[in-house]
Structures are given as C-alpha cells and as structure tokens.
Amino acid sequence: xxxxxxxxxxxxxxxxxxxxxxxxxxxxxxxxxxxxxxxxxxxxxxxxxxxxxxxxxxxxxxxxxxxxxxxxxxxxxxxxxxxxxxxxxxxxxxxxxxxxxxxxxxxxxxxxxx
Amino acid sequence: xxxxxxxxxxxxxxxxxxxxxxxxxxxxxxxxxxxxxxxxxxxxxxxxxxxxxxxxxxxxxxxxxxxxxxxxxxxxxxxxxxxxxxxxxxxxxxxxxxxxxxxxxxxxxxxxx
Lengths: 114, 113
Prior knowledge:
With about 110 residues, chain A is mostly beta strands. Chain A has no helices and eleven strands. Helices cover about 0% and strands about 55% of the residues of chain A.
C-alpha cells in the first residue's frame, strides 16, 4: 500500500528563518511526486511536480527536491504570507486514486511569525 | 468562472438525510475528481471521471455514496442515509490531463448532526 508521511506536523518560524519540510514515501513505481499548498478554508493549490531522483524545482522562496525515498520542500527567508499547510502527494501506477489520482500525506502546518 | 466551483459551500443536515453536492469544473477539463478531507488529514480519493464515465470509483467508502457526470461537465456527489462519520469537507478537482496537476475547488463542508 502506498504511504506518504510528512514531518513535522507543524512548524513555527520567524520571518526570514529558513527551514525544510520533509515528505517520505513508499510507493511501487513512482510516476510523480507533487507539492500543494492549502490555505484555511480553501482547496489545495498546485506548486510542483517532481519525476525523478535528483530533480529540483523552484518557485519564489520555495524549492522542492526529490530522492528515491523522500522529498524536501525548502523555504528560504519565509514571509508571513507563506503561512499555510503544505501537502505532499504521490502518483503510482495503481495508487487507487484513479488514472491520474494522488495519495496525499497529512500535511505540514507552517506558521511564519512577523 | 475561471476556477472549479462547488456548491453549497456549507451543508448541515441530520443523520439519515440525503445530500447532493455539486461541482462545476474548469471549462474543457475532461478529468474530474472527488476527494474527502477530514480535519487534520490530507485529501482522500473518492472517485475519478474521465468524460462522462466513472473511470475509478474505488475510493467510495460504501454504497451510500454515488456520483454522476451525465454530460461530461458538471458532477454531483450523492450521499444517502447520511451518518455523522460522513462529516468532512468534500473537494472537487479537475484536470486537463497534465499528470498530478489538479485544480481544486474550495470544497463543500458537510456537517451531519
């Protein structure tokens, strides 16, 4: 069974204090790993897709990296508006999430204090 | 509208009642998904449509849950004989086919008393 574990569950940082969020996964035949951002009361918003170990993607203060067992979401010099829950998801050939469906982790709740 | 639209945004019902939740996807998106999200959890897959047909309904928890997409656009999730455990946010997402890049609506929050 595909599993996605995110850590920490919650993280509180000061504005400008860089850190990393972890996503560990076990999946047979990873097709892709995805990061989403979710604000309170909203649906998840797509951030990144990673397909193979060693791949990196960047967007503003965020950088996502992928190894064979885990992915990291690095946040550099965060601002209060980066506060949100960050969700990691995997896609496998038979993930049970439909042909393009995803299996999500529980997320990391990130708070950036001014 | 430009995004995925879900109605109602909030629904409070009594145990045993029937509920319908509606999703209007992004125009032109052929793939449509329903997910359920409980407090403190990630979204949990329910059902996936490609066009009008349910390509994968393996996530539906039991036969009280059913979804349709008769014209390949709007979809309705139907829940019969609601139970308190059905309380959650029901998220709809659509996709143009770019693997894993789903566009989510804001969800319908269902509360069963």
